[in-house]
Design a protein that fits this description.
This protein has 387 residues and is of the alpha/beta class. The chain has two domains: 19-133, Rossmann fold; 141-372. It has helices spanning 30-39, 56-71, 90-98, 109-112, 115-133, 163-176, 193-197, 203-222, 234-238, 244-251, 284-293, 323-328, 339-342, 347-362, 368-372, and strands at residues 3-8, 14-15, 19-24, 43-46, 75-82, 103-108, 139-142, 147-153, 180-183, 260-264, 274-278, 298-303, 316-320, 335-336. The strands form three sheets. It has a seven-stranded parallel β-sheet with strand order 10-11-9-8-12-13-14, with helices on both faces. Strand 13 (316-320), helix 12 and strand 14 (335-336) form a beta-alpha-beta unit. The protein is globular.
Amino acid sequence: MKEFLGYGRADGSVGTRNYVGVLSAVVCVNEVVENIVRQVQGTTRFTHHQGCCQTPLDIHIVNDTLINLGKNPNLHSVLLVSLGCESTDLSGVIEAIAASGKRVEHIVVQEVGGSARTTAQGILMAQDMVREASLEQRRPFPISKLVLGMKCGSSDTTSGLVPNPAIGVASDLLVAAGGTSILGEVTEFIGAEHILAKHAANEEVAQGILKLVERMEQRAMAVGEDIRGGQPTGGNIKGGLTTIEEKSLGAIAKAGSAPIQAVYEYGQRPDKPGLVVMDSPGREPEILTGLAAAGCNVIAFATGRGAPQGFPFVPVLKITGSRTAAEKMIDHIDMNLSAVIDGGDTIPDAGHRVLEELVLVASGAMTKAELSGYVNSMDIYMKGPVI
């Protein structure tokens, strides 16, 4: 069985990175978080626009997402930054992350006395935590410890022909080795959900997939809109995709051929290996956050026109089947599989190489998004209004 070099964690999960995570409890402290991370090498940030003036349902999602982001194995330890009057359950978040065996520290702006003092104190705390994290060493683990997130974005006609099915092959290989793959982007099941449901391991899972799509469409209809007014996007149409059904048929190719074992809510961590589905939208900031919260330690991202986004502490491997995108977006594309379209390569061979590259990345090889620092524009998926 293939192995990768990772960081073992107290809860049994394995990290592919070893950061100290500095997390915002609420939008109001994003600048403090950014200032701390800017000054301390070995830290990474997660900032967002939530945490206050929201419905109880959405605050619950914020709490759960922050907890599961903190538990992500790519974080050695966590520093939570709070304003002091937010709706986020700070003590509950701290307690739940700490229960996974991690060191968790927190700092409250209104208690310390303003952003300048909080930043200075936070820098000292983060330095101590990074020193502790730096003592960790990579060691071999089976690829069954990989949790692969799958995403496509800025799609065109090549996406469903090459990178999506190649990721599907890589996912099948990982699942066969005992690993976990997570498929999201429910908006990109629409029109093909009946095909995806046929991959389900049982009827309960099949109905769960159909219910996710129904729920997503009902959200749009509740405000008097048809979701097809926004999908496919303008960029998708310029890339040759004409309908949501066309886009979805390509998107679900990332699922490969393995049976879907379970359906989870947004950011929920799977409790079984294999291929699973997670509720999430298609937009990068929210789905990448959801995949990280679900425990993904590496993400494969198919793109046709060239989407640049990565994630702060989960490496995102960008894969294209478009020679044009590979050439024009060279500083963002990690793998160019356009030889499949030219006739010099095959989907099975390309899929094997995708898995090999994921293993290298999991062992420490940096992605283009990491090298460029294009990783910070993230958010949490909300279901209600700001109130």
